[in-house]
Amino acid sequence: MSTTVPHALDISGLSAGYGRFDVIRDIALKVGTGEAVGLLGPNGAGKTTVLRSIMGLIRQRRGSIQVAGTDVVAMPPFRIARGLAALAPEGRRLFVDQTVEDNLILGGLHLRHDTARHEALLASVYELFPVLKGYRKRLSSYLSGGEQQMVAIGRMLMSDPEIMLLDEPSVALSPVAVDIVVKALIELRRRGASLLLVEQRIDVAIRVCDRLYVMTHGEIVDEMTPEAARGAGMSLIDKYLG
Amino acid sequence: MLQFLASGIAIGCVYGMIGMALAITFYVTRIINFAQGQLMMVTVMVTAELVGQGYSPWVGVAAGLAASAVVGVLSYLIAVRPILAFNRFGFGWLVSTLGFAAIVENAAAYFWGPTSIPFPTILNSTSVHFGDAAVLTGQQILAIVVALLAGVAFELVRRHTLFGKIGMATAADPEMASAFGINTKTVAMVAFAASALLAGLAGVMIGPSTFANPYLGDTFGTYGFIAMMIGGGTERPITALYGGILLGISAEGANAFVNSRASDWFPFLVLALILVVSPRGLFSSTGPLARLRPVRAGR
Lengths: 242, 299
Ligand SMILES: Nc1ncnc2c1ncn2[C@@H]1O[C@H](COP(=O)(O)OP(=O)(O)OP(=O)(O)O)[C@@H](O)[C@H]1O
Ligand SMILES: [Mg+2]
What we know:
The structure holds 2 protein chains of 2 kinds.
Chain A: E1 9-18, E2 21-31, E3 36-40, H1 47-55, E4 61-67, E5 70-71, H2 77-80, E6 85-88, H3 100-107, H4 115-128, H5 130-134, H6 145-157, E7 163-167, H7 175-190, E8 195-199, H8 202-208, E9 211-216, E10 219-224, H9 226-232, H10 234-241
Parallel strand pairs in A: 3-8, 3-9, 6-7, 7-8
Antiparallel strand pairs in A: 1-2, 1-4, 4-5, 9-10
Chain B: H1 3-29, H2 36-52, H3 57-86, H4 92-112, E1 127-130, E2 134-137, H5 138-160, H6 162-172, H7 174-179, H8 184-210, H9 216-231, H10 238-257, H11 266-277
Antiparallel strand pairs in B: 1-2
Helix pairs in contact in B: 1-5, 1-8, 1-9, 1-10, 2-3, 2-4, 2-8, 2-9, 3-4, 3-8, 5-6, 5-8, 9-10, 9-11, 10-11
Bound molecules: adenosine-5'-triphosphate and magnesium ion (MG).
């Protein structure tokens, strides 16, 4: 083969941090097109910092970050957001003083002139999360935690990105809500999306992902299949997630 | 007898426009542009200069407003953005915007000298009588109409246009706004231009009574700030207009009932009292008059 299909996400030698210190060092990580990859690790391991670096939200970053073959290290976030990467951030961070539908519209700003595609994306979000359709005109701050997470995921989908970044979407949700989120992520994978899922819940990552990385103290320390992770079970938790 | 009410509302609308101008930039960037009064002064001086040279008042006003918009965007690029890029939560902007104000003011004083020059009236020939109780000049009526239109237009744009929603998103969470494709620098530049235009409009309304003077920005910047704080403009810009009207009425009332110099200190007393009762402003979501906000779905 003379040409290779670029990975949805291909990171190498990435270091990033705040102030004078790097909190992640020499990260190498790949997500193939249509692949769902998990990034596990304990509190403070640097998982969020990896996602924020990809999104361009951390200025202080060195190394290579390729999204579908485009190097984004020198790009400002608002350019990366226009079809390359999209984030469902830690803590959801909806635009709480705006309606559900306005949050979704704000997720796909660069496609707003491509009305047909924009409408199709909106319809696909409501198809994925039918409950949101009834809440279209409701202020997003009036939703439950699970519903807010659905909006955060929907907002991420609206830019039709090459790589979707999810930061602990299961956190602080009821078991039922976690199940809805997990099923939605599995459905996205079935539709061919490329996902990088940050999680502390191994069971969630195992259900969604094709491959898992484990991160501690700012470095990637292990890589495994979901089967291996399931087999390792508690010993993995003891070893890394404490 | 009711004259103080009528003229208070008119001058209050001018203060309110400056307050709204301050509040719009605060809304998007969370800083107070202490050069806002000077942006008003730029419109007044440029308009007066051009009309003095024989141009029509409309040309003068248009050029004056454009000049303010340009200086407003410059105030952002020079005095605000670099400071916030260095530390988004620091207070460096306090010094830098005051410094910018001093530079603009001194440049104007250098060009035009410290004395006042005449300013054209747009609508003075007519006046409106409210029975025997009060008289307002055409210019005063115009100030009220323009301020209300500006307030309504701002709210319509903020709530019902995509640009307004982008502005709200930027105001609420600039980092997430940029993570969803919004160029927050452009949004801020538009906000600074719009707020300079609003301050400039206030200048056009009041210019005929104050004349054009390079130091005009000090007083009106201060009154605009008080209007914003009384109303609750740090939360919702439109409330600065309500605050301005209250301020105008109380200042004119002080002149009418205490003595003719009372408007120099009375507004500060009002501000202090109101901030004790309601630290975030009368019309803020926690303020006593919050319920006067028009009820509407989605804020
Ligand atoms: N804004 C910041 N300024 C300074 N240090 C930070 C900042 N954000 C995170 N850190 C530090 O960087 C390290 C990694 O943080 P990060 O948020 O990436 O961890 P995480 O793996 O996402 O943790 P969690 O599972 O708790 O979300 C931590 O030690 C944290 O204290
Ligand atoms: Mg995190």
